[in-house]
Amino acid sequence: MNRTIRKVAVLGSGIMGSRIACHFANIGCEVLLLDIAPKELTDEEKKKSLTLDHPAVKNRIVNAAFDATLKANPASLFNRKFASRIKLGNFKDDMSKIKNVDWTIEVVVENLDIKKKVYEEVEKYRTPGTLITSNTSGIPIHLMGEGRSEDFQKHFAGTHFFNPPRYLKLLEIIPTGKTDPAVTKFLMHYGDLFLGKTTVLCKDTPAFIGNRVGIFGLLKVIDSMRKFDLNVDEVDKLTGPVIGRPKSATFRTSDVVGLDTLVKVSNNLYAGLVNDEGREMFKLPEVVTKLEQNKWLGDKTGQGFYKKSKNAKGETEILTLDLKTLEYKPKAKAKFATLETTKTIDNLKDRFKVLLAGKDKAGDFYRDCFYGLFQYVTNRIPEISDELFRIDDAVSGGFGWDLGPFETWDAVGVEKSIPLMEAAGYKPAQWVYDMIASGNKTFYKADGGQKKYYDIPTKTYKSISGRENFIILENKSENIVWKNADSKIIDLGDGVLNFGWHSKSFTLGSAVIEGMNKAIDMAEKDYKGLVIGHQGADFSLGANLGLVFMYAIEQDYDEIDFMIKAFQQSVMRIRYSGVPVAVCPQGRTLGGGCEMTMHADIAQAAAETYIGLVEVGVGLIPGGGGTKEFTKRVSDAMEEGDVELNALQNAFMTIATAKVATSAEEAREFGILKKIDRVSMNKDRQIADAKQAVLDLVEAGYTMQPQAKNIKVQGRTGQALFLAGLQGMKMGKYISEHDAKVARWISNIMCGGDLTSPQEVSEQYLLDLEREAFLSLTGEKKTLERIQAILTGGKPLRN
Predict the structure, then answer these.
(1) What ranges in 157-240 are assigned the alpha helix state H?
(2) Per residue, what are the HEC states of 289-334?
């Protein structure tokens, strides 16, 4: 069956329901979001003499829930305008409308009886052959499908999203014994390609995979914490970014999610896992029980493991809970010798070797935590999954870990760690010994550019199903054709090169610029095209401000001028080269990274791209072609009948207010991405998508265009408009004198400098104005103060 999803119904508008609805709206689906109609009037409704049959009353619950979701931060929608794709209603009046949808997703309260009653109503109206799934986090899927029609059961499965659905990549697919295999296959593929998820096929076991292993890991952290007498601040220091996990680490994550969620899942697992050798780990520590009794559940109740408070000066400060006394104390700085030794180790896999070899309390903690986790996951195969990679995928996608348990164990060294695990009382399952005995020393290996996993029954390595067409650059080391200290060029095959870099914060220093020019040279000589991008956390945070600051302090303006000119020329080569160039922004794509994107023949953006020209924040202007490019785009739009000064003003404000788009779709609205630019919902597909985009341009007969010499600028007429507005903002004390100075430079560039009348100029003319402005501002004291504040971790000074 050629199944297409155009319309989706979401039943239940709570936190998860509303956010799932938003994510389907993000990809262009029409969504029907329904919830129950109230059984009682509020006092406000009584005052208005409304009845329970009034539409405003009937939709009160769904309206309030959806409105709360729209106000929540971070945003669930890529663009606020996408809310129009979601229609609201109630079960009583609107359930019949599900006959028109392709997929109905149930997201009501976690109660089997209530879910079954909802399914009875669904069966009355659902069109046979359409999908019906549940977002349950723990109720057995087969129990929910009992008593339903054959067609219902054939098209029924669990689809467990993690909160927030837009941002967490995991989507667990849980079929029953009666689910059509074609439906399971479709859900796995659709979740990956269209929803951008890491789809994980799960068995119908308690808490599936993500929560089963993730919650065990969290409780194991608390267990190890007690063993080695660590406090909350120390544990969050040890379990955050240093081990490739979110900044919220362990206890801050609990506060954000809500301790009641942890309690509920843990209690359910303890009750249901009677044959799990690790069952006692799910028995909540006494301190967690006390927190629940005190209603110290985290952010939702105002306090949990952390609490915001006001000090004697009236300043907000974060207090940390002492788990021994249950008193809040000032946040303490945590320091460990083991952590100090890893500060210069950027590669996470290399860092793990050092962390688990530590000789202090931190090393003891890490060994106990991870050895316990390693043992636990080996014993979960084949109970919760037949393939080990699904466990890694679930935990990484659901909890934001950079490396799953088996990937981490590979980094530490499987064979050498087994004796240490045995000595610590954490003997792994027999299949691990069998793997080592068969000559296989790792759970994963790269082969032919693909990541393969160890298959336990056959004792061989197999490709991960569904990812044959992914391009994972880490697995392409054998295809590196050139490299320097900060960058590398990889042959992607089919005549396409990739240029990527790994500098600190992915900044654009001289080695990166050298590599980018080398990649363009090689592509023009021997290849069809070039993909610029990598698979790090962010695309780029822009220029190396430390270098700019050093030269400015030394008043070596010739070096700064050389830097700017070199970067401008490199960015212009992206646009004007003999082969098509695709740029792959993702994550934070700021300053120079944004300028690179804007000059691509085509951008292949990740859906989660946070992109903008932010230079004004440090008292500078976009000097790598960004100001020029916005000016050019306004000029190009004039030919389409746009209003000249209004369009110019909008572009000016985007730069002058350092607007950062919070999604690729918002970047398109801001004018940073072009209409032709493409978006990859799944970041893991981005490089492969970009390669295809390059080949599409080649197939279409790509020809390099000449640099533009007909950019329409407004001269003094346009500047007068901007200067009047700036003067008003300065007088109203909305901006400082230095802010106004930066803004005047931007208006000078966008209006073409001191021209007596509107006329046409070249791209190079505007680039020269950019360079002049950038150089001038690097000599300003306020600019240097702001740069210094950022480099030293403080906030930019604003007077």
Answers:
(1) 181-193, 210-227, 232-238
(2) HHHHHCCCCEHHHCECCEEEEECCCCCEEEEEEECCCCEEEECCCC
Q: What is the pLDDT of residue 794?
A: 57
- What residue spans of 332-451 are helical by DSSP H? 337-341, 348-355, 361-378, 388-399, 405-412, 414-424, 430-437
Phi, psi (degrees; rounded to nearest 5) at 656? -70, -25
Q: Burial of 490 by CB count in 10 Å (0-12 exposed, 13-18 middle, 19+ buried)?
A: buried
CA 550, CA 560: separation in Å to the nearest integer?
10
Exposed e or buried b for every residue in 149-176, given b needs 16+ CB within 10 A? eebbbbbbbbbbbbbbbbebbbbbbbbb
For residues 457 and 464, what is the distance between their CA atoms, to the nearest angstrom?
15
Dihedral sign, Cα of residue 509, residue 515, residue 521, residue 523: negative
Q: H or E element: which one contains 611? A: strand 609-612
* Cis status of the peptide bond prior to 405, with omega within 30 of 0: no
Q: Beta 587-590 vs 602-606: how paired, if at all?
A: unpaired
Q: Kindly list the distances between the CA atom of residue 210 and the CA atoms of 358, 394, 730, in Å, as whole numbers in the listed order.
A: 29, 5, 53
Report phi then psi at 240, rounded to 5.
Answer: -105, -140
CA distances (Å), 581 to each of 520, 623, 668, 715, in order? 9, 21, 19, 33
298 phi/psi in degrees, rounded to 5: 115, -150
pLDDT of residue 642: 47
Rounded Cα gap, residues 575 and 602, in angstroms: 9
The one-letter code for the residue type at 79 is: N
Q: How far apart are CA 527 and CA 512, in angstroms?
A: 20
* Helix runs in 603-757, H state only: 626-638, 644-656, 664-670, 686-699, 715-731, 737-750
Bridge partners (DSSP) listed for residue 604? 678
Residue where the block lists tokens 């006494």: 286
Confidence at residue 639, expressed as pLDDT on a 0 to 100 scale:
66
Beta carbons of 539 and 588 less than 8 angstroms apart: yes
Considering only CA atoms, give the Rg of the chain. 28
Residue that has been written with the tokens 């919070």 in this structure: 662
Instruction: State how beta strands 7-11 and 103-106 pair.
Output: parallel
Q: Using CA atoms, how far apart are residues 765 and 386, in angstroms rounded to an integer?
A: 63
C-alpha distances (whole Å) from 423 to each of 276, 371, 418 are 22, 10, 9
Query: Pick from 96, 85, 42: which is nearest to 64 by CA?
Result: 42
| Cα 515–Cα 520–Cα 525 angle in degrees, nearest 5 | 125
Q: Which tokens go with 520?
A: 């363009």
Rounded Cα distance between 447 and 475, Å, is: 8
- Output the CA torsion sign for 221, 224, 225, 226: positive
651, 630 in Cβ contact below 8 A?
yes
Contact 443, 410 (CB under 8 A): yes
Contact (Cβ atoms closer than 8 angstroms) between residue 16 and residue 161? yes
Q: In what order do the strands lie in the sheet with 609-612?
A: 587-590, 609-612, 660-661
DSSP letter at 335 equals: -
User: Cα 336 vs. chain centroid, distance in angstroms?
Assistant: 30
Please give the average pLDDT of every successive group of 10 residues along the chain, which has 799 residues. 93 97 98 96 93 94 96 95 98 97 97 97 97 95 96 98 95 98 97 97 97 96 96 97 96 91 93 95 94 93 92 86 94 93 93 96 97 98 97 97 98 97 98 97 92 96 90 91 97 97 94 98 98 96 91 93 96 97 98 98 98 95 97 86 74 95 97 97 97 98 95 92 85 88 96 93 98 95 90 55
Which neighbouring-strand residues pair with 493? Answer: 496
Closest residue by Cα to residue 728 from 740, 738, 718: 740
Instruction: List % helix, strand, coil for the chain (3-state, nearest 5).
Output: 50, 15, 35
Cα–Cα distance measured from residue 684 to residue 450, given in angstroms and rounded to the nearest whole number: 13
